[in-house]
Amino acid sequence: PSIVTQIATDPWQCIMQSAFASPALGALGLSALILLDVGRRQWSDKHTWPTAIRHYLLFQPLKCFAQVRLWCVVRDAERGEAVQRKLLAELLERHHDTLYAKEHGLQNIRSLEEFRCSHPITRYSHYRPYIKLIETGEADVLA
Q1: pLDDT mean by block of 10 residues, the chain; 143 residues
Q2: Which whole-number Å values give the CA distances from 4 to 33, 41, 124, 132, in the listed order?
Q3: To 5 degrees, how large is the angle CA 61–CA 56–CA 43?
Q4: 15 vs 8, 11, 28, CA distance in Å?
Q5: How far is CA 99 from the centre of its chain?
Q6: Model pLDDT for residues 74-109, shown as the tens digit of each residue
Q7: How many Cα neighbours within 13 Å face the side chain of 115?
């Protein structure tokens, strides 16, 4: 098939192939696709081509990043218990040398079940003495 047919059917694949063949050609193709995409969008009357391109180049990567983060949140939500267990294990490992962990026997806890059995549900008042120590400059109290 001709290059025109290839671009019309799958422009991204065409750009990727040309980028491997010649980086300059790939950059040119990517620039052309960006301009094409910018030209197809609805812009306010106040946008000029340069401002529209700047807006596009700023927000398209952010949009892609947000889509990846959303995918991660959804993936983690689907396996919430496993994520929470992993987070608890990381927190216990990271803070096992703190005063709080030593005083409450958190150093040897290895599972969620052990944590639930040995550590009660707490309120702010439970942490108030530790916060006072932190305010006086004490290190390794809670974190």
Answers
A1: 55 61 71 80 83 85 90 90 92 93 90 90 94 94 91
A2: 14, 22, 67, 71
A3: 145
A4: 12, 6, 9
A5: 31
A6: 988 999 999 899 999 999 999 999 999 999 999 889
A7: 17
User: Which parts of the chain fold into alpha helices (H)?
Assistant: 3-9, 11-21, 23-40, 49-78, 80-94, 99-103, 112-118, 124-135
How high is the pLDDT of residue 43?
78
- What's the longest Cα–Cα distance across the chain? 75
Rounded CA gap, 70 and 29, in Å?
29
DSSP 139: S
Instruction: List Cα–Cα distances, 79 to 65, 72, 73, in angstroms.
Output: 22, 11, 10
How far is Cα 123 from Cα 11, in angstroms, rounded to an integer? 58
